[in-house]
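#lab-general

N.A. 3:47 PM
ok so I finally got the sequence cleaned up, no stray characters, all 166 residues accounted for. can someone with queue access submit it? mine expired

B.Y. 3:52 PM
send it over

N.A. 3:53 PM
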Amino acid sequence: MITPDWERRIAELWAAFDDHEPADFLAKVEALAGELPPGDAVAEFELASAHDSIGHEAEAAVHYERAFAAGLDGKRRREAAVQYASTLRNLGRAEESAALLTAERDAGSDALDDAVTAFLALALTDLGREREAVALALGALSRHLPQYSRSLADYAKALMPDEAAG
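B.Y. 4:20 PM
back already:
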């Protein structure tokens, strides 16, 4: 069972990521994950994130898939979708990455919307769809500008291929 104390300890470990050697960090995440029941969705997500953060994309993908299969939900599910899509792209599976992120964009809205869009732009670039990628990135950026946001959003729309503009 995940307790507030467990959440605090995993958050503190992530906050200190740069203070650890990769193997040490992974061992600490494995120890915390081991406190949860085998196959726990959150444990699998944390293991995936740890492997991903230290450059073990293939192992991360396995844990992301297990986390989804175990019913990962809430904020971690959305984070996992972004991270897994990035992992897929790094593994040369950009088409799967783009499909996952496109579905994520259509699924709802939250604080990670621009992250979803940014990683989708990277996947589209790998697929040779650079113009669409730039349009998405500019559209996301336009929402954060103190000035020129409407103009930049209009330019972003103009760059989109007709079939993707909707």
